[in-house]
Amino acid sequence: MASKLPLTVQGGAAAWGTIRGSFHSLMALLIAALMLAIIYLARDAEPPPSEEEARVAAEEVGRVNSVGRAGRKGECDLFSGRWVYDNVSYPLYKEKECKFMSDQLACEKYGRKDLSYQHWRWQPHDCDLPRFNATALLESLRNKRMVFVGDSLNRGQWVSMVCLVESAVPTDSLKTMSFHHNNSLIVFKAKEYNATIEYYWAPLLVESNSDDPVNHRVPDRIVRVQAIEEHARHWSDADILVFDTYLWWRRSKMRVLWGSFESPDGIYRDVKMPRAYEMALNTWSQWLEIHVNRSKTELFFVSMSPTHERAEEWGGVAGQNCYQETQPITREDYWGAGSDLAMMKVVETVIDDLRSRGVAVQILNITQLSEYRKEAHPSIHRKQWEPLKEEKLANPLSYADCYHWCLPGVPDVWNELLYAHIFKNWVPKLESRVEE
């Protein structure tokens, strides 16, 4: 897919040669003052990219967008497509009817009046996604475990999946929700199928001081990039594993600990991004290589979920964000600054290396398709876990959630893509079938 993404290049002032020659003192002062003014103005300037720089950036975005796509003849690229408004087939469930809906994602319940975000269908360019069949999925999960592992965005995808399937179990006594291990593990069980769809809180995948599912907002985040066993023991025997981790790594550097939190001999270092991210994913990949049952377990990694915090990036008013947005972005290949290409490259490299060692992980490349959906975030329409002060309430932009996603909504499409990969199923477009 060709990209039209403009490149922002960080730059500084141009180098200046020394002033030579002999000048009248007044002229020298004037020239010196002029030079200082130019340097001051140029200090923070960002020169426009050259044609070559723009071309390289466009190629990089296009290459990263191809991660996880079909590569064999006859396969369809499910991640390349467009959003189509469809108020007949969508949403796939009603917010009020999902008994296990999260208040963090229940935008209609918390006052959102414009519900058009629920009616958009993802349409791949060259095929159709199979219709989500909850009964078929539960049957495929009979006597099995599907576990989502990661941060709150992964939890949102898990809630979406539960809402998608729970209507196929109409009897309340045949479906349960239980909480385990200090609420780090949440289990939805469809008793008739002896199938579980679970979520495990591990926002950085490896161990950290943010692993408490409730009290994880700490001033100084610390990760043990070589430690994953404490988490992994809770999902080691799963049949389908769906991982994600990105949002919590969005910083210039991370405090890394070699040793345990309890030991006084631990070594702490500040490690820059994306190196710290790479170290953690290498630990994750090594665990999979050693412990995963390659003949039993299907592995998926969900690419970065984009944010919409800067309206000027999509042609909106500077200083605004997703608050009061009601329509998707229509510009093809739009890519926001919140999605880090270098970190996505790390994921690709680690998973390619893992594949070369005999462990297959399918990347669900949801980044580009989600980039378009600036209007689909909760914004202010969600439960606030702490009372908001008057100054916050007076400025909705200051507390608008432009990270998570309303349900029904975008994560349902992520699960439709997951469903298609689990069943290895896609449908040729009608016109293609007619031509054949």
The main β sheet shows up as:
7 strands, mixed
If strands are numbered along the chain, what order do they take across the biggest sheet?
5-6-7-4-10-13-14
Oligomer: single chain
Number of strands: 15
Could you report the average pLDDT, rounded to the nearest whole number?
86
Binned strand content: 15-25%
Note the run of SSEs as H and E.
Answer: HHEEEHEHEEEEEHEEEHEHEHHHEH
The geometry reads as globular
Name the poorly predicted regions: 1-58, 431-436
- What is the end-to-end distance? 26 Å
Q: What's the alpha carbon Rg, rounded to whole Å?
A: 25 Å
Give the helix tally. Answer: 11
Structural class: alpha/beta
Helix content, binned percent: 25-40%
**How many structural domains?**
2
Outline of this structure?
GO terms for molecular function: O-acetyltransferase activity. The chain has 436 residues and is an alpha/beta fold.
Would you write up a description of this structure?
The protein is an alpha/beta fold. It folds into two domains: 1-11 and 21-65, no CATH class; 79-435, no CATH class. Helices cover 28% and strands 16% of the residues. The protein has eleven helices and 15 strands. The protein has helices at 25-43, 51-65, 134-140, 152-166, 229-232, 275-291, 341-356, 367-371, 390-393, 410-422, 430-435; strands at 81-85, 120-124, 127-128, 145-150, 175-180, 185-190, 195-201, 207-208, 222-224, 240-243, 253-258, 267-272, 298-302, 361-364, 427-428. The chain has a seven-stranded mixed beta sheet. The chain has a four-stranded mixed beta sheet with strand order 8-9-11-12. Strands 1-2 form a two-stranded antiparallel ribbon. This is Protein trichome birefringence-like 34 isoform X1. Residues 75-128 form the Trichome birefringence-like N-terminal domain.
